[in-house]
Specification:
It is built from 7 helices and 19 strands. Strands 1, 2, 5, 6, 7, 8 and 19 form a 7-stranded mixed sheet that branches. It has a 5-stranded parallel sheet with strand order 10-17-11-12-13, with helices on one face. The chain is of the alpha/beta class. The chain binds flavin-adenine dinucleotide. The site of flavin-adenine dinucleotide has 38 residues, from helix 1 and helix 7.
Length: 294
């Protein structure tokens, strides 16, 4: 198949890029599995114009319907290879289908680092969260633990003091800067050196067990170990990702390789829906414009 624009990733960034690209009349293909988007299992209450708590899966479904209504083709597949060739790009799916195109948009998001302990997966969305900024409001007046050793965990702990009744910051070897640690402590965060072993609860989080046998009664756990983007495809396309695997873009969401754009969580934080959608619009417009100029 030939296309003007191929978008790799079917999360909010990729879908918005698809909407803007196809409305510019560029032949646009979105390749990716919506159910693997970070937004799929999220409940959103901080997105412009959407009041209350809305399921991210509903937003994604509406978004892809919109993109298709503007002429986008959606392939519910993973991309296994992407290559820059003379004057165009070639993208290959897991089923072996090859698509050549004038521009590529990388919108593959990040995967948040997991603890890998019992209860983490089972209680996700029932008190376990990977995003303090997103879910802080759901824990008003409750007791929470923030897990992680680096500055992200410090900032998250501090933020939670504005919502939760008690905040425990649990880290194995805390390596956040002294100023961040002091600030968290001065805000009432209880810092515990330890390693989580299990999150206990059936329908909601009840307590956290540590390796040394200690048990802490809590209502929520924020796992703030950071995230990593999948940079393999970016490297295939000739890009050198940053140390944290993010992909650097300019104000047009174009990378250092002409014709390769990137948007959403893969370009860095804050990892938020509004940012992903904003960058998606910019990337989609510029990717489509480039092919119409060619
Ligand atoms: C639990 C949770 C709660 C959240 N709550 C909020 C909130 O309340 N408010 C808020 O603003 N943000 C929230 N977020 C963050 C928000 O969901 C993300 O910022 C947003 O989804 C990022 O969009 P994205 O399109 O960049 O990446 P994603 O949504 O992660 O989408 C990435 C897409 O790329 C695809 N992909 C990856 N690799 C390939 C490949 N090789 N081939 C094809 N496709 C590929 C994936 O399948 C997926 O479709 C939350 C996130 C989580 C995890």
């Amino acid at each position: 198949m030939n296309a003007d624009v191929v978008i790799i990733g079917c999360g909010p960034a990729g879908i918005q890029a698809g909407i803007h690209s196809s409305r510019k009349k560029a032949k646009t293909v979105i390749i990716g599995k919506m159910r693997n988007s970070a937004l799929y299992g999220a409940r959103i209450e901080n997105y412009f114009g959407i009041p209350g708590k809305t399921d991210g899966s509903l937003l994604l479904q509406e978004g892809i319907n919109q993109a298709v209504s503007f002429g986008c083709i959606h392939l519910d597949l993973n991309v296994t290879q992407a290559a820059a060739e003379e004057g165009h790009f070639r993208v290959t799916t897991e089923t072996g289908e090859e698509i050549t195109c004038g521009s590529v948009v990388i919108a593959t998001g990040i995967s948040r680092m997991k603890l890998g302990i019992p209860g983490e997966k089972e209680l996700l969305g029932k008190g376990v969260s990977y995003c303090t900024e997103c879910d802080c409001n759901f824990f008003k007046g409750l007791r929470v633990a923030v897990i992680g050793s680096e500055s992200q965990a410090a900032v998250s702990s501090e933020l939670m003091t504005k919502y939760a009744s008690e905040v425990y910051w649990i880290g194995e070897n805390i390596s956040a800067g002294r100023n961040l640690v002091d600030k968290a402590e001065s805000m009432g965060v209880k810092i515990i050196a330890g390693t989580p072993k299990e999150i206990v609860g059936s329908t909601e989080v009840k307590r956290l067990l540590l390796n040394d046998g200690r048990s802490i009664d809590i209502d929520g756990v924020f796992i703030e170990l950071g995230g990593r983007s999948s940079s393999d495809l970016a490297m295939d396309l000739g890009l050198m990702p940053e140390a944290d695997n993010s992909v650097r873009v300019d104000g047009r969401c174009e990378t250092s390789v002409k014709g390769v754009f990137a948007c959403g969580d893969i370009t860095g934080g804050p990892w938020q829906l509004a940012r992903a959608v904003g960058e998606g619009a910019v990337a989609g417009l510029n990717a489509a414009e480039r092919t119409s100029d060619a």
